[in-house]
# Entry
Amino acid sequence: MTQTELVPGLAGIPAAESSISFINGQEGLLSYRGIRIEELAAHSNFEEVICLLWDGTLPTQAALDAFKERLRPHSKLHPDLERFVRALPLQGHPMEALQASLATLGMVSPRVDLRDPVARLDACLRTMGAVSTLIAAAERHRKGLPLVEPDPNLSIAGNFLYCLNGERPDAIKTRVLDCALVLHAEHTMNASTFACRVVASTETNPYTATSAAVGALYGPLHGGANERVLVQLESIGGPENVSAWVDKKMAAKEKVMGFGHRVYKTKDPRAKNLQILARELFEIHGSTPLYDTALRLEEEVTARLGGKGIYPNVDFFSGIVYQKLGIPTDVFTPIFALSRMAGWLAHWMEQMEDNKLFRPGQIYTGRKDVSYVPIGQRSAAGK
Ligand code: SDX
# Structure
């Protein structure tokens, strides 16, 4: 079947069959393996959600304990990988460091026999186990601080905060981060998951496929929006400035970071849950003027653009939560990558089960039957 009409950005075009997650964009619903995100945010945890995404069902206590046991050793970095992280340039973005580190993780890991499901799972455990340590280690290196060895008794969320800050994280902050990781873990065929599946379809290993996904997530139209939302809120300077700021944005035809979505045409359910987390943190650690500005911005933008289906997305409140957890702004997107690693690896495994190389077509708009002109006879106009 040849598609003759271009669909920009492949909007709404099915790229695969998948049973991992589902979105109803009109009603603002998201579920992982059929379980609503609100249920998982309220009752589950990130390790359990990884099992749900990878295996298709919630684990028993024994299965969850066995998963944690198998994941645990991989949070410790291979010596060559640690040396690599210590050699990273101090400038550049933490997402660039993560993308390079994942490809390097592949260099120090066993070759993956893609025909062997045990080898495939092992490579996924190595990738999932290392990612939080890689992000924290790169940040410690950038700050000129000694790397912190992960504590095998802590959860992924707890270990991330421990390896980042070098001190035992408090229970509330750990639980809030864990819930944020649950909320960001999976989201059907978004740009970075699509990138992961395209690279997976050439029969690469999960290290290179997720490294490609990190590259896609980094962009400001995708995961990179969360850090830009915070910069945006700080630049507005307070709720009283919101209306004039939105006037200027609209006049310049510029997009407001943290709003709009290719699929959701109502408020992103994850934004609602992140707002709840923000308020929980404020009760203990005090509020922030940024939250008041965010609420006023939401009111203003939805009043003007709600009719076009433009509402807050997952990136709108996440930065306020991460800032309250003491996380540097340009580490927000790496946290998104830490969480989405669970979904990317679920999609990598699903692609490997019934793989078909991605090779879409195009609509050619160039010239035809052009003769070769020897260089001495060419004019600058190239005509
Ligand atoms: C994520 O796909 C996923 O699932 C992604 C994600 C996930 O979990 O993986 O949910 C995570 O990436 C969330 C999105 C984070 N990005 C941002 O917050 C950046 C700002 N948002 C926009 O860039 C935009 O909303 C997109 C890219 C997210 C979606 O845009 P579309 O579907 O490509 O729509 P479009 O750019 O063609 O815009 C349609 C109209 C345009 O106006 P008109 O030309 O028709 O007059 O809506 C306007 C746009 O100008 N519009 C916005 C806007 N988003 C769309 N106007 C102002 N501000 C915005 N944020």
Observations:
- The beta strands are 21-24, 29-32, 35-36.
- Residues 117-142 form the longest helix (26 residues).
